[in-house]
Amino acid sequence: MIKINQKSDSPLNHKTECLILPCPEEKKPGGTLKDVDTALNGTITTAFENKRFEGKSNQTLLLSCNGNLKADNLLLVGIGKTKDLTAEKICKASGTAAKLAEKSNFKSASAYLGCFEKIAKGPRYGEFAGAVAEGAGLALYHFDEYKSQDEKDAPPSRLQKLTLVAESKTKTAILTKSIDRAEKIVSAVHAARNLISHPGNTATPTYLADHAKKIARKSKITCKVLGKREMEKLGMGALLGVSRGSHEPPALIVLEYFGTAKKKAPTVIVGKGVTFDTGGISLKPGAGMDEMKMDMSGAATTLSTLQAIADLKLPVNVIGIVAAAENMPGGSAIKPGDILKSMSGKTIEVLNTDAEGRLVLADALTYAQRYKPKEVIDLATLTGAVIMALGHQAAAVIGTNPAMIKRLKESGDATGERVWELPLWEEFDKATKSDIADLKNIASPGVGAGSSMGAAFLKAFAGDQPWTHIDIAGTAWGEATAYTPKGASGYGVRLLIHYLEHRRTK
Ligand code: BES
Ligand code: ZN
Ligand code: ZN
Q: With a 6 A CB cut-off, is 356 part of the ligand 1 pocket?
């Protein structure tokens, strides 16, 4: 992870390989930019005149300073109109700039925060500075653990150090806080991306359990892992059913974090941890099946959220539960038509072994009830249908409590990890009823609404407290954006941290 530090300095005097200057959208260079432009003999004015750079969101302009500034190079990055500025926009601009600086072979860079001193008063300044650190940290992610020879011969250039430069000396304390918070969040998101990027033959249920134990060892978290035997004792027939076709043993991983009085009911976060989803006997088509190593993204988000909560010492009680199993076809695998008895006592007719996420979650949601939770959130790459509905732009939220969904939406908008509500109408509940068991794991043909149907099934196990299901099949994985790489995005960690930070005040 990139090292981030701070300094107070002026843009004209600051020595660096690359000075990143966030610029609001304007007709011509203003404020600090005007002074810098004068030193550069009007180069920036010309760029504005030619419309090569006007400060529009994520626009960039890289200039060589030729000895006119102490900095070797100047990298302007647009942040759009000042009145519309948000931390999320800054995060994106900073990610864009950091990636360009790295591509330009710089080893270190400095981001000048002077423009925020004028437009962001009080805690907002810290928030904006933190967004610069977070955006750069999130954008500079590389997963190269499996690369060997080629890259050793010609290692790719990496930006190793970012300095946040404040104009005034009074900002030291607030910057220390903002950088520390950003580093903790970035580290948790990177950890989630790593877990998701590892192939199925590395990131097995046992690997997830070991990772959870490591998180617990380093923090005020306790970790408990239930194996097959314990699950059998608890009657977790649904989770065990999914894992039956695989040689990899399943795991139910529990992380407990108490940041406030123990008697206060916790928020329980439940994650789908299918470490590889072949579909089972209802086998998936071969093309693109490799991507199903990401089917434990809900688990990765759950574990990393717990890691971040503990690192940030949030004054909340949170339990993380991961239902981990591999979904394989095998001699002992469950078959279409098989009936499983879940921990709740409800029986499930498995009409499609590829709808396995809801099966593993059913038992994890029942297990969550022992914590008498204040609320339950589950995260799962549950349905391909959510990609049809929302693409990779938002996760679906489906739940029983409008106030909870509203708060999740607010956190989604603030962090850029957007959520969009899909309905949970009673017709969907009806469509989960089986002719010969209590429930069936897929609806009859023609019902449609795949994501809502998945949620309707989960609702039967979610308990009476407020509950929200977040379908992250689209957002967990995709093309690169300003601060997410191609592949695993680590979606959900920043959403949930924001949610929990604001939850306790409401
Ligand atoms: N893991 C998949 C969902 C998925 C699809 C995640 C694409 C990421 C990208 C899930 O287990 C699944 O296979 N769901 C089925 C459900 C169907 C059989 C009711 C689906 O979406 O097709
Ligand atoms: Zn599946
Ligand atoms: Zn799946």
A: yes
* DSSP per position, 216-278: HHTTTEEEEEE-HHHHHHHT-HHHHHHHTT-SSPPEEEEEEEE-S-TTSPPEEEEEEEEEEE-
The per-residue pLDDT for range 330-379, each reduced to its tens digit, is 999 999 999 999 999 999 999 999 999 999 999 999 999 999 999 999 99
Q: Which CATH architecture has domain 3-147+159-170?
A: 3-Layer(aba) Sandwich (3.40)
Q: Which CATH architecture has domain 189-503?
A: 3-Layer(aba) Sandwich (3.40)
- The pTM score is 0.98
pLDDT tens by residue, 178-216? 999 999 999 999 999 999 999 999 999 999 999 999 999
Report every protein residue that has its C-beta within 5 angstroms of ion ligand 2.
277, 354, 356
| pLDDT band at residue 505 using 50, 70 and 90 as cut-offs | very low
357 alpha carbon – ligand 3 mean position (Å): 5
Distance CA 342, CA 345 (A): 5
Task: Give yes or no for residue 383 CB within 6 A of ligand 1.
Answer: yes
254 CB within 6 A, ligand 1: no
